[in-house]
Amino acid sequence: MRIPAGTLGILLFTTAIAVTISMFANFENFGYQSYGDRIIMQIIYIFFAFFFGTYLIYFGFLPVLLTVLQKIKRISYSGLNMFSFKYLKNRMKHNTSVLWFVTELSTLALMLLTVCYFGYQLIYDNYHAEYPFALTANSDTADDVRNIINDSKTQVKKEYHSNIKITLVSTLDTSGHILVQRPASFMSYSEYMKLPDKIRQNNPYINPHQFMRIGFGNNETFGFSEEKVEWHVKNAKKIVTRKNGSSFPYGGGMYAGSLMIVPDAYYHKLSTKATDTFYGWYFKHGDKLSKKQVKKLDRLRNAYMISVNAKSNLNDSEFTIKKYSSMDQSPNNYIQSGFVRQESAKRHLNQIVGFFIFMIAIFSIALLIALGSVLTLRILLRDDHEWRQLKTLKKIGVSNQEIRGIVRSENALTFIIPLVFALMQSYALILLADNGWNSLKYEFMWIFAGYVILYGIIGIITYLISWRSVKRRIN
Description:
- The radius of gyration is 32 Å and the shape is elongated.
- It folds into two domains: about 70-130 and about 350-475, no CATH class; about 135-340, no CATH class.
- The protein has 13 helices and 13 strands.
- The protein is α+β, with helices and mostly antiparallel strands and about 475 residues long.
- A hairpin with a 6-residue loop joins strand 2 (about 155-170) and strand 3.
- The strands form two sheets. Strands 1, 2, 3, 4, 5, 6, 7, 8, 9 and 13 form a ten-stranded mixed sheet that branches. Strands 11-10-12 form a three-stranded antiparallel sheet, with no helix packed on it.
């Protein structure tokens, strides 16, 4: 019974790992969309295989493994192994359900801690990428915004500005088959490099001769991407790049379309009548705008509209800059924002998400401590037969130090086995939420290190208490 069960458990566990590896290989080769028809069934199988495979390994494989080792004379006749293998095998059989229960809940706690922290980091990074400055404005509204800032007695920590050019480009639509003409912004490499490092760090590195697209739509990325992007630019050289970013300088809300970071030479040769300048401010302790000032600022929200008159040939197409009108909602009109203010919202978001993370962390840590206590209780609880085994060893002349070694082996086996299986399961399942660039590996490494330290402390305390109890009973 135990041999077939153990074999099935190993088969389920290893196939779950193999399916996880296969999923990521297919993600890299074909992407999530083309692979989405099978992903749900595979995820269900992974959870099922890990859940029941672990129990069957505990129930069948580990006791059988100890039995096999016990029959190998070179191992079983070494020191106290003749006694310890039989004792540990019986303890393993009695503790199967407890070990499985602790393993699965430990996996859950590790996943909660890691994914929760990752979620907080992802929200923060995406929000920071969308609103990198406390307040941003374009050239049409910059003077008015600056006057409002001065009137509010807000302390400006740093002010940045960057020049951009706007022209028409032809790119694929969301279907990936139809070319669509739309406005796009261009920023020179030199202007881009003047921005703070924390704005550029969420985009891939580029040298002065490379292009990088930062955009919306079907090519939108949450980090680095190697997807090929082709832009036909009006009256300019076609751009082909695999550098894709997600962090807009001055925030995505300030752009009527996508943004391309281009070499200085390309930027200066780009012929267009539409130019703009974006401004960004950092404040000390946030802005001090009153409700009246915020209401006055809201009137500057939409600076102008870019109206596209598309032709069959991109070079024949035209676009015009006109005053914003809420009544003119043509699909060929693109709105240029006058300002974006998100300092207060960012603080509230950090507070809300931080509190949520704190609660999840407290719950997960409490769960891990409780599970460690369950193992401690299970080790301390021995039935009459197990006590007789230890007393018999004492009667036949086994020293306290040697019996202590058996207790130490039992304690280590009880704590290390759930630790190892929880690590393998949680890491494989956490990879399902890993997006490649913003990896969970470092977060998981630190969290699991804390988990090992926590269980190590509980294990040492359990060992000391267990040995003290055994010593008192056998002497």
